[in-house]
Amino acid sequence: MPSSNTDPSFLPAHRLAAEIAARRLSPVDIVEALLSRIERHNPKLHAFIDVYADDARLAADAADKAIRSGHMVGPLHGVPIALKDLIDLEGRVTTGGSMAWRERRSPVTASLARRLIAAGMIVLGKTHTVEFAMGGWGTNQHLGTPWNPWDPEVPRTPGGSSSGSGVAVASGMAPWAIGTDTGGSVRLPASWCGLSGLKTTIGRVSTYGILPLAPSLDTPGPMARSVEDAALLYTVMQGSDPLDPRTLSAPPPSDPMPALRRGVKGLRLARMPNAERDGCTPEVLAAYDEALETLARLGAEIVDLVLPCRFDDATRATGRIIGSEAYQLVGKLVDDPALPIDPAVRPRIQLGRGISAPDYLAALADRDAMKRGFLAAFDGVDALLTPTTQMPAIPVESVDQTTTPAHFTRFVNLLELCALSAPDGFTRTGLPLSLQIICRPYDEAMALRIGWAYQQATDWHERHPPSFA
C-alpha cells in the first residue's frame, strides 16, 4: 500500500475517508496514531472513560483487509469514532456519568451504534459525560471533569453534557464523536471546544439503547471539526428504527449532501432581537456581528424577527420539562443519600420532585403554544442566528452550579427545532467562540448548508489547540 507521511490525528473525517479509499492511509495507521495520542494526552484531558484499544486494533486490521480485498462496505469504512458514555454497547460498561452505575453492563447495543458499526466505523471508546447528562458546564465531581484543551494551564469548562466527546475531538484524539442534546449538550461543548455540532430534530436519529434524561427532548447528534464532517456523520446516523417509534412518525430521511454546497445567496437569515444581546460578553457579540456580516457578503439577506418568547422564558420552560422527566427516571437514585450522586446534579434533578402532573402537562401545553407562535413568526425566514453561548469557557472553579450556560440552546430543544453550532472566532486569549444556526424542524440540511458556506469563507474551524497540535 502506498504510504502517507500525513499525521492523521487532525485530519477531518472526510479527508481520512478519502485517504483510506485512495490507499494512502490504512485504518491500522489511523487507529494506532489516535491510540497513541489518547495514551499521551488522556491522563490530563480526561476525555475518555474507557478506551477499547485491543478491539479497535482488531477492527482496524479487519477493515484494512476488507478494503484491500475489495470488500469496502461504504465510504466511511475504517474511520474511527468516539461514543458518549450514554450509548449502550452490549456487555460493555455504560455509566451515564454516574458512580452509582460504575458497574452497569449494557443489556443491548444502541441502534445508533449498530448503524455506525455497519457503516464500517471503528469505536475507539466511550467519552465522559455529566452525570445522567444533567448539566451544561461539563463538570463531573465523581468521575472527573474533562479538561478543555484550549487552555493548558487553567481547567476551563468543556461544555456539557457531552464534555468528553468535545474534548476528544478538539484535542485530536478522535476525528469525530457522538453526543446527545437535551438542552444544548452537543452545542455547548462544540462552542467551547471549537467544533461543529448538530442538534437534530426529535425522531431524526434513534434513541433506542441510549440512556435517557428527558425522553421528549433527547436527541443524539454529531460533533466534528467541520460542518462537512458533521453532515457526513449525520447522514449515517439518521433513519427510521422500529425500536424507536418517534423515528417512524418523522419525515423520511433527507440527505444533506446534495444541497450542502449551494451557498446562502438569496436566503433570509434572522438576527436575534437586540434585547437578547444583554448578558453576552463583548467578544461574543463582536464575533457574532462579524459572522452576520460575512453571511451578508455571501449573499444572504439579514432580517429582523419578533420571537414569541424570550430565551430566558424558554430556558425555564425547558428546565421544568427536563426536571419532571429526569426525576421520573432517576429520582429514586438522587433521593437516596447513601448513593454517590454528584452534589451539583442531585439538586437539579430533585427540582422535578416538586413539579406536579398538572404543572408538567401545563408546561407541555405552553411548549405547543410557543412552537406555533415561533413557526408563524418564522414564516419566510430560513434560519435564526444567535451566539451559541453568552461567554467563552470559564474556569471550572468559578462555575456557579445552580446556573446553566444553556441560555441560547434550550430554546431549540423546547420548540423541537434543529440547530448547528460552528466556530465564529476566538477571544484575545485564544478561546473559541461560536455561532448557532437555528432552523425549522427536520431542516438539518439547511442548517448544514448555511454552516458549510460560512466555513468556506472563514478558517476558524481549521485551528487546533496549540498545546495539543
Kindly summarize this structure in a few lines.
The chain has 469 residues and is α/β, with parallel strands linked by helices.
Tell me the CATH architecture: Alpha-Beta Complex
Which CATH class applies here? Alpha Beta
- Work out the number of β strands: 11
Order of helices and strands: HHEHEHEHEHEEHHEHEHHHEHEEH
Helix-strand category: alpha/beta
Count of discrete domains: 1
CATH superfamily: Amidase signature (AS) domain
Largest sheet: 11 strands, mixed
Unreliable stretches (pLDDT < 50, length at least 5) are: none
Counting DSSP H or I runs of 4 or more residues, the number of helices is: 14
Distance between the termini: 27 Å
Secondary structure layout:
Blueprint (H helix, E strand, L loop, with lengths): L12 H9 L5 H19 L2 E4 L1 H16 L11 E5 L26 H8 L3 E6 L35 H8 L5 E6 L5 H7 L2 E4 L19 E6 L2 H11 L7 H5 L18 E4 L10 H16 L3 E3 L7 H24 L10 H6 L6 H21 L5 E5 L22 H5 L3 E9 L5 E8 L4 H14 L12
Parallel strand pairs: 2-3, 2-4, 7-8, 7-9
Antiparallel strand pairs: 1-3, 4-6, 5-6, 5-10, 9-11, 10-11
